[in-house]
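Regression report. Comparing outputs from two consecutive submissions.

Submission 1:
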Amino acid sequence: MMKRNALLLALAVTVTLFTVSCKKGGKSGLLVPKEAAVVVYFNSGSLSSKLSWAEIKQSEWFKEVQTKTSDTLARKLMNDPSASGLDTEKGFCFFLAPRGRGAYVSFQGSIKDQAAFEAMVKSTGEAGTPAKSGDLNVLESDEAVLTWNKSTFVIVADAPMSGNNYSSGVQRFPNDSLTLFAKNIYALKGKALLDEDSRFADLIKSKGDMHMWLSASNLYSSAGMGMDMMTNMLKLSTLTEGNISTASLSFDNGAINFDGKQFYGKELTKIIEKYKSKGIGDDLTGRLPAGDVLVAGAYSYPMGVILDVVKMVGADGLANMFLGQKGITLDDIGKAFKGEMAFAVTDIQQRIDTVKYEDGDGRTQSYATTKSDPLFVFGASIDDQKSFDKLYNVFSEEIKKTPSSVGNIKTEKGWLVISNSNDVSSAFYAGNNKPAYADKIKGHQFGVFFNLQKLFNVISNETRDSTGAKMLEVSRATWQDVVMNADYKGGEGSFHFEVNLIDKGTNSLKQINQFVDKLAAINRAQRQQWNEVTIDSAASEAPPKAFN
């Protein structure tokens, strides 16, 4: 393992520095087989336009890391990644592919200067002598091989999905198999490539600094995942069959945006298509607190879809057997609720709590401590009152035992509401609020707003040391809020995740670099202060008396 790490260190450093798009293969230019389960693609042509390596080198945090790096090659590559011989104008991509009862991972990129590349590999000190196989150079390591020709390198490593030994039933691949996988990657073309799938090709062409692909069906096709028995019992394969997730990450001015799509298999699509949702409207957002909340969200989609999925995988029998002991069924739950919910945490309040205990003599002692309690509200819309009453009566005894400090449970005006604040609960039932953040989640089937500025205020109340306070101020001046939403429309799902920053005019990648630099400066100042205190203490300490 040590040899493999040493062999790949130089490549890993260089790739971290300059990650760009591959320009080989089919429509996308990526040499990725169609059976790949996970693919990560970096577009550093876009990344470097937002934050250049020259800018990173000027950062104090980078200078400190470079100073502490003792490896000569690593220092050389940090100063000039092109010294690796890699073509930083083209690029790198990663994928994981199941194979039988095992899996392998591959990392690949383009070579600009073969002599420089081979010199870099040789200078690791662990490289050994590469073997020739046709026009390929093959260098073996522990559970991994590095192959290259004059224009491309491909690393392939064993990646067992679970377990750590052969007795677990997980297939492990020796180096000769890994070398064969590498050769197959170089030879990929046409229908053998993943980009024959238009969804993948469209993903790579779309706007973004990083693209990700996840095929649940390919991922779980490996028996090494340990899902065989559960899959056969509950038909879980119907959840993963044809299930594809795609996502793109973009560093934009004033925001980090993460957008994705979800493609489902035939069975799951049929179920979801049965139900429609108008999305989060004023009726839901009007129940959310109008003040400066910490987090708030809402959900609007018929309950029937959840019950149908449970039935599709064959889990309804087990569920009804368990619920039957209480005299209820899954259908009772489905009829009781509409599928509309709203929730919020308005604040975190501190209170003094007294903790009692017995000492060694059996006497009761106590001490005071500070506890933090969230003020919250959660509400679910009731559909069929008769079915809901049936559920409520079954759990009424447990509900009565719930401490008031945890929350009060009420049912009024067609809503089940749980809250530990009477004011927030009353406002929820009234439904007349107009929160400023409502537009960020309105119209979506699921939406969440997270107020980072409020979080920093909460943390500041518990921050005692000056270093923590300084870091908090830097965070407060950088980060604003987080917004998430998700929908299902037109036969596919979609989601959006965004992190908003205070400065709207500067690219978020530059701001992250500046943020890290400021935190590093605070840490450096603290270390210097500690060193000064240590030196002063040592200087003032009297020398020990001689022993006579």
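Submission 2:
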Amino acid sequence: MLGKTYADVLNLLHYEFTLPETEESWKKRQHLLAQLSDIFEKRKDNSTIPTDFVQKVKAILPHIVTTAGSERTTLSAQACRALKNIAKHFQTQIQSQLDLLLPGLIAICGSTKTVNQKNANDAIIIICEHAGYSPRLFYHVCAAFKDNRIPPRTYAPEWLRILIDTYRSQMDREKDSPACEKAIFQGLTDGQVKVRENTRAAFWRFYSYDPRAARAILDNLNTHAQKALKADPHNPDRPSLATAASQLNAANAPARPKSALASIKAQNKERMAQSQESSQQRGLTPEPMKSDDFKIFGSMDDAEKKPTLLSAPVRRRIVATPMPSASSAQRPESRGRAVTSASSVAKDNTANTVPETVPKSSYETVTKSSYETIKSDGKENAMVIRPRKKRSPKRSPRRSPEHDRLASEKKTLMMAMEALRRSSLDALGYRRLRKLIEENPGALIIRYAQYRELFELLINNMVSLDMITESREKRANINHPAYNTHTILITLVHLFQQYPLWPEPQPGMTLSALLIARCNHSSSYASVLSAIDDGAFLLCSHTGPTLLPTIDAVLDTLEQIEYILTTNDPIVTPKSTDTLLHNSLQSLASDFGPEKPSFANRLPIVMDFGLKILNALLIRVVSRNENLYEIQEDRLAAFAEHLLATYTSIIKRAVMNFCINLHAVIKPEPRFYKYFKKESDKNLIHYYVDVAGSPY
């Protein structure tokens, strides 16, 4: 039952924050935070806040900030609401907590959910207005201008403007003014348009506080940035829009002539003179032929009605008719009508004259003798002599759309690899890279060097041994810690399936990465754990020439993980007999809670997963009829003896399966039992080997 007084609410909250955030606990945590906000909102004005209440709230303040970054939107909203009420009512009493509040809220402003961004932004605005003047407040706000994420840089100008308005009289000109100057210049030269627009308002507010520093910022900007800054609505010296528009129109308007009618008449006279000159030159210069000029001549009766031809060159219609065959040339009467001879046609045509005005059309300048020479007997003009035209060189064949698409996809792949080199690829970028590899199987990568580089970049960005001891607050993606690992793992599986002839850059590096990923996400989403298990099974079943080096790499990684987890948790260790029950009960504890998970809780899960991989590899050795090196046998046997002495109850079955598979590899059998010193271990292994080999 939830408490009614503030002491009950704070005590219950303190207890809930000591537990991990689960499906059952987050709703209770949300109701408690809502009750805490109600206590603040129902407080009477100017009433005294109890000292013990302030101390208890400050004690759970770090947990409230952590809860504000939760993936559950309603829980995050209630946490931000509580933070706003705390800052509004405590006022200057939270100045000692600014280094805790502001970095966490600024990080939430850069989250992937818009609702969480808005809630965190509102909380920071309340803190800026009510926390009182503090150099740490200016420091964190100015540092937000250099944040790697876009939303914090977008909100930061508004925070700085509030600080300048609220604490103008208390600001230190020697420290705060240079910090504001650098931050504003950073915002005005930012690559995002929204950041630059918001910073302009903060600039003019800073200009009213320190004009000299503001002019220094303006002088260091380029011409376009200066014009945009001066045209900003927050500029107090900016002219009104009506005045600016009238000045602009007056400057751009052309000079009017003294008489508009005289100008129009002069233009008409010019056009008439140009048309007359062009008509005079038209009879001397032939125009190019058009498709409308190729028309069939009419009958001979129509030709007699035409005026007689002049001796000067005239415009003549050109008819393009097919060349007659030899048989048709000898039989002109086969055309179905009586046709006069070629000489009579020529004679009649010479009697025609050209009209004075000829409609504009293309024509050929042909003399009488040349026309008669060109024309064939019994036919109209069958061919025309034209000047040879210059043709442009042949174009290369057009590329297919598929070729262009692949070229674009390859360019996108190169951009993704460049982002992987800088470790700046976000969750959406990993998803697009996975889709790129999935939709273009075996088509984007044609060289092993590129395949090797992409493979190594994916492995390095997926996991590292340093991530095992890293706290949750320092992880790259606070909202989805397992999302990128899942996407990268699926991409690696696609690469394995699409390029089966190309081995991984280093033997066993993928299986080692899966071990580390299983350690970092010991109780993550079911899809991530399933992807890790499926990927390990696929790699173990397809390992070929590099089988023996792969076993060495997996064994090295497993020993390193065990050492790191055991060393960093001095209280709970696998060798402690009184904590075995604690380990077995807490092995499924989530590592996504607000507290850093206990390392020993993950150790049995990781060791069991590593032993499954080693068992699969040893079975692969037997199926391929290969033999281990003597040094490998010594290492594996020593590791088995260590497991028998350390894990006496938690993963006992997995350890015995490992001993059975190792017994099948190390020959002869007496040599295998020499590795174990305790007689009880030998008897136990012998029993399990007999049971495994029995048909019943």
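Expected: both submissions complete independently.
Actual: both completed, but the second showed a warning that disappeared on reload.
Relevant detail on submission 2: Confidence is low (pLDDT under 50) at residues 289-311, 324-382, 570-599.
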